[in-house]
Write a structure and sequence with these properties.
Number of domains: 1
Strand order of the largest sheet: 1-2-3-4-7-6-5-8-9-11-10
Largest sheet: 11 strands, mixed
Number of strands: 11
Order of helices and strands: EEEEHEHEHEEHEHHEHHE
Distance between the termini: 28 Å
Radius of gyration: 19 Å
Shape: globular
CATH class: Alpha Beta
CATH architecture: 3-Layer(aba) Sandwich
Helix content: 25-40%
Structural class: alpha/beta
Strand content: 15-25%
């Protein structure tokens, strides 16, 4: 397992037994180990019972998972330039972690941080060097400049303040490391069209903010990273019921081909920032 550091005083945590804990070598705080994860939060939180399984979500279509596969390819492209196998921290990644398994051959150490007990209990580590932590992105339990990559996927729009999380990502990232941030794109063509006819998203109770591609790139830049890549993916977007019907029996390779063609066409006709998903890659220099 990866050596963790105290989230408050940034001193190493020493493994202990009877019962299993991680104890800070400086402030002497102890953090229990249970169900395969280190618990840095202790007290119950509103996130504990959040348990989203994309395989059981009726809203998810084959086109949705195809869009996720394109996002995975973008993640691999961001990791490949790192020297050797990478040390990666995935903030908020216990529930919908399709990135880790798809990039397992590129991972040396993998730290997955999530505030939900339910998500952590269901998580299946993709590589032997995986460390699971119940914690928050505002206090990463890692030393300065530890990570080759910090992943923040579908996280920033849930936060009341994004600056503290990105500041921790910057502190944890080594010189030359990347931060890879992706979100639903508030500037997508279909959200713009929906707003014009008076239809608005009904998930404001879980999403604190809406960001388009420019907003996301600016947020990454404000945190001290140099933006090296920015794009939107998933231009093909149909009503959920129609997507499930049309793509129900279409092979993955065909779905991927359709999405690739419509992405290239969409960028040309609608503009480069109008796809369903924004992804921004920043580098610490």
């Amino acid at each position: 397992m990866t050596e963790l550091w105290c989230p408050t005083c940034h001193a190493p945590l020493q493994p202990g037994t009877s019962p299993p804990v991680r104890r800070c070598t400086s402030c002497q705080r102890s953090f229990p180990e249970r169900d395969g994860y280190v618990d840095l939060l202790g007290t119950p939180s509103v996130d504990d019972e959040f348990d989203w399984d994309p395989l059981l979500d009726p809203r998810i279509s084959a086109a949705t998972t195809g869009r996720w596969r394109s996002l995975v390819r973008a993640n691999r492209a961001a990791l490949v330039p790192t020297a050797g196998r990478a040390r990666v921290v995935n903030v908020g990644g216990a529930g919908d972690d399709w990135f880790g398994p798809a990039c397992a051959d590129l991972l040396e150490r993998y730290v997955v941080l999530d505030p939900s007990v339910a998500q952590l209990r269901r998580f299946r580590p993709p590589v032997s060097g995986t460390t699971l932590v119940r914690g928050v992105g505002e206090q990463l339990p890692l030393p300065d400049e530890w990570a080759d990559a910090v992943w923040l996927h579908g996280v920033l729009d849930h936060l009341p303040e994004v600056a503290p999380v990105l500041a921790e990502a910057h502190r944890t990232a080594a010189t030359g490391a990347v931060v890879v941030v992706s979100l639903t794109n508030d500037g997508s063509w279909f959200r713009t069209l929906a707003a014009r006819v008076g239809v608005h998203p009904d998930d404001g109770h879980v999403h604190e903010r809406r960001l388009d591609l420019d907003d996301l790139a600016r947020t990454v830049t404000d945190a001290g990273f140099v933006v090296e890549h920015r794009e939107t993916l998933g231009y093909l977007r149909l009503p959920r019921a129609l997507e499930r019907l049309v793509f129900a029996r279409v092979p993955d390779r065909v779905v991927d081909r359709i999405l690739d063609v419509t992405d290239r066409l969409g960028r040309r006709v609608l503009g480069p920032g109008r796809g369903a998903i924004s992804i921004v890659v920043g580098r610490r220099v």
